[in-house]
Queue: 2 jobs
Job 1
Amino acid sequence: MKKCPKCNWENRDDVTKCVLCATDFEGAATAATISTPASVSQTADSSPTYSYQGQQTANPPAAPAAKPSAYDPVIKSGAGWLYTIAVLSTINTIILLAHGDIAFVVGLGITQLFAAIASEFPRVTPIAIFMNLIIVGIYMMFGYFASRRAKWAFITAIVLYSFDTLLVLVVKDWMMLAFHGLALYYIGRGLCAAVAAGKAEKPIGPVI
């Protein structure tokens, strides 16, 4: 039986119009199709298609990828110094524990101090190695988050490396002190670039 969408009268299947109100079944079906709101359907291959008023359209074009910021190279450079400090501090620790007589001037003074104590007192070597691994891991973490524009990573690293610079100043290692100052300069530039990048990407409110 065919039910009329207008008066709900049940008609025979072979009729094209309602016998009670004369509603054209084909015309009513066409009107219902046109009034269908916009919808999103998904095909068998899980690729969404978009339709409006009964018509299917192709997938909408993807939004263009965001352009890299002009501040990114400076930020990456500052984060790279933090990675360099961590790696060279590890190498300095190994050299000192092996009773070597060379060291990289960009490395941390605190890790060299722990390694020097361990070389003089072998019993504390495991403790010194453990402490140096923690310190190196912290600087690696700073480098990771700083490369992603985390201002707190830059600020904390600058504070800790400044204390390490004071330690170098106490032992009067002038070459190491000069390179500490150079590292602080580039890390500071990375912080300034991260701050400027954050301000540049903030949405601008409506002009009143």
Job 2
Amino acid sequence: MATTDSNLTNIPIAGKTFDEVLVSGSKDELNQLKTWLFAEGIRIEEAIEELRMLEARFISERSQFREEMKNLSRNLDLEKKRQKSEAAFFDKKMEILKDGFAKLDADKRKLEKERLGFLAQKENIAREVDYGRYDTVEYLFRGTSNPIALKKRYKDLLKVFHPDNFAGDHEMVLGINKYYEKMSSQYEFDKEETDVG
């Protein structure tokens, strides 16, 4: 039985090959060969067992790696979807904000226009009120033909319209003072003209 296995040619029996010991070896050499083959068989079985364990570990690690890759891939897909969803949500919020700012700007312009209209209306009303108040004050002083009657009416009106009174009106008192000063200066002017003339 010829073999080309290098381990069989290098058996530790007095420099003989496996075939030589097998064919023409003594009983003692055959027992040594048998012991060596037994030890070699155990070594090979251990090596095979170690290879099986390595293979099982490799298969386990490979399946674990594949599972981790699946999980990573799944997580990556979920993350991409989440980011896409967040980007869409952000875009939607930006669109809402832009619309809100546009409406706010339009409302601001509208309010400013209304404010200017109200200010103009207020000025018109103030002019009408002042004109009406002046007419009212003039009416209150009707029938005062001399400085004494003017002064008496002035004092009576101040008692009625003084702001400390329950029905007092500050604006009316200002109008009364203004009209009294105007009429007083007119009576004084008329008196000076009559004295000169």
